[in-house]
């Protein structure tokens, strides 16, 4: 398999796992030009159902992990074509 694809998948999984473990009950992310508010029902560590906001949190972390993994794939692969 291609190194870029492997690192992309590993980054996606690592980001998703990180997002799941760190899902907040309520959080707000403020960046210039971008405001994201994430709130959930109950405590995040209660093991209950995930809310749509918590899924959004997990998805954001998974996307960031995938981007980092793909970037590492290009660095490790020497920038060769896919």
From TrEMBL:
Keyword Transmembrane helix: yes
TM region positions: 55-76
Keyword Membrane applies: yes
Organism domain of life: Bacteria
Keywords recorded for this protein, A-Z: Membrane, Transmembrane, Transmembrane helix
Name used for this protein in its record: Uncharacterized protein
Species this protein is from: Flaviflagellibacter deserti
Top-level taxonomy: Bacteria, Pseudomonadati, Pseudomonadota, Alphaproteobacteria, Hyphomicrobiales
